[in-house]
User: What shape does this take?
Amino acid sequence: MTQTSENIVPNAEPVEMLLNMGPQHPSTHGVFRMVLWVDGEKIVDVVPHIGYLHRGSEKLCEGEQYNQVITLFDRMDYIANFNNEHVYVRAVEKLMGMEVSERSEYIRVILCELNRIASHMLFIATMGLDAGAMTPSMFCFRGRERIQGLFESVSGARMMHNYFRIGGLKEDVPDDFVAQVREVLELVKKDTEESDKLLSFNEIFLARLKNIAVMSAEDAIDYGLTGPCLRASGVDYDVRKAAPYSVYDRFDFDVPIGLDGDCWDRYYLRVQEVYQSIRIVEQALDQLPDGEVTSSLGRRLLRPPAGEVYVRGENPRGEIGVYLNSDGSDKPYRIKVRPPSFCNLSALRQMLKDSWIADSVVILGALDIVLGEVDR
Amino acid sequence: MPATILLAISLGDFIWLVIALFIMFSALSGVVLSLTWLERKVLGRLQLRLGPTRTGPMGLMQPIADALKLILKEDIIPASSDKALFWVAPIIVVISAFMIWVTIPGTQNAVIQNLDLGLFYIIAFSVVGILGLVLAGWGSANKYGTLGGLRAAAQLISYEIPIIMVAISMAMLAQSLDLREIVNGQDDYIYFLVQPLGLALFFIAGLAEVGRTPFDIYFAESEIVGGPFVEYSGAHWSVFFLAEYINTFAIAALTVILFFGGWSGPGLTGDWGIIYFLLKVYLVIMVIFWIRGTFPRLRIDQLMAFAWKVMVPMSFLTIVMTAVYQFYGWPAWSLTAMSTTGLVVVGIVIYKKMTAPSKLVAETRSRQAALEAQRRAPATGGGD
Assistant: This one.
């Protein structure tokens, strides 16, 4: 679509100014660009532009062997690497009808939930910064840094871990892993509580976020929102509960849901999810069985049978889906990802209608998009 | 003492004035350096960080390193900017910031030129700075800058009114617009004790005047990326920065002079009172930094609503209270009672009526608790 003023704002008379926000804007969370039509301080219309981080990941996957694709999935949602790896290896395992050892599933779940905590802490930090509060970001980054230190001891990298393998893991976790995780969990809980107390019920923060960009449950479902953005509207839907995968059915945890479907609910829901994820990790640590985690398949050239498979999982940002089509060769014929950020972003235009310029960064922040995943 | 007209003074006095202005300029620059260091350290400690540590002991040389960096940086002037306005805007801002300090007394004698209409002069010059911000926003030919400049105009002019009103009621108490007289009028009791409502209004409006959190709306980094300053770099930007800190210092100093008895304090007499003055001013500034480390930022419409629906009526109330107290010659505690009642009762009532947050907190908390209870109930009922 060509962007001229005629087809963007067909019947908005009092347009005063076109304000280009991004891709080099501190609050567009990466290289997202919004073209705002503003009337004074009010937003009349918005045209989102994506693609500044497009690397053709899905096409690249077709040129790589199955084991090599894992590292490409690391780079899609670069805030939640383990969750992305998990959904991909589950897709290949499902295609091959492969059984994975209990221990590796437990370790995968522990790492995924820790990654969810890290991702949500980053969200809380940036939400505070978007609203103008700088201190919670320091508390949250401290907690996130602790988790990433843990990831480094496990996989050798703070981000882009490349640790999950088809049929297992790259190698077993360090000997003191359980003790380390327990120690980190305690500290992370404290960090979250600190920033929660400081920010969540702050009057100015509430004034900025409450009743902003309200989405009804129907609207949220219609737009295909998933994850915290959907649950904030009061829809009790979490892939971990709705279609339990891996070993998630063995843990006792709640799915927090929101009250009004506004930005504050989207924020507070993630704070609550951090506590729930801590619960899951604690239970998983208690139940962690012994056994093998490495599979010889991980090092071999894989040739899954021809066929197709669709696997979904709950990422920190919502439901991620991987469609995998194999022609029986050592490389996937086609991989299509349903990225939660991209689908959540589709509701941006409705959310921004009739809001203030200052709200736009808060609304975008509450959607919690990762551009690596939107553009792929 | 009548105000002296500069042209009519003798050569000796003129030289003295030049030297005094030079001293003021240096002292204020030193104050700004100390404030940048202090702000980074205080914020660091609030956020469980160390703040600057690498430059000199305790990072004390950090402001000098910053200043050097800013001066050595390339000063970029955008090609599409209005160059004259772009150049003149920082100068207007910084001159108005310095001009205020001509008449703010550190002690009875530590003042460049005491004016009978000191308070009037300060308020008049503090408005001039707004012109610089608007020109900066407009001259840089940047939409974020323009938005920021317009926000600055709206915000600063709105909050100027409560400041003027409160200043007037303080002048009524002291029966003078001369800052030295106002301080001397607080010999028996500091005005904070009789007019706490006035202090609250003055401090809040002062925060808005200098654009400190939670009122840093006109250069909101996460929204309009620096507002009027977005196109400025190097030395030009550092001039804005200088003006901002001098203004912060001035608001803190005025708060101390109007409400906390300026340089008066037990033990120290004469010009040694400047120690008390600086101590009090830095304490007020610490509070400003503390607020910066705690609060998010308001939105422009919330800010304006707060100004016109809460601040302005309440500041009129302080004038009425002071006038009634002065006219009938009631004892001082009666004004204290009136002002405190005003602060507590009227403040809470207006705040709850006019702004949503308080109601929202209570409502959200109760609904959240209800949701939690509701979720727990079936879990325990159906548990096995």
Q: What stands out?
A: The first strand of chain A starts at residue 17 and ends at 21. Chain A touches chain B through 40 residues (CB under 8 Å).
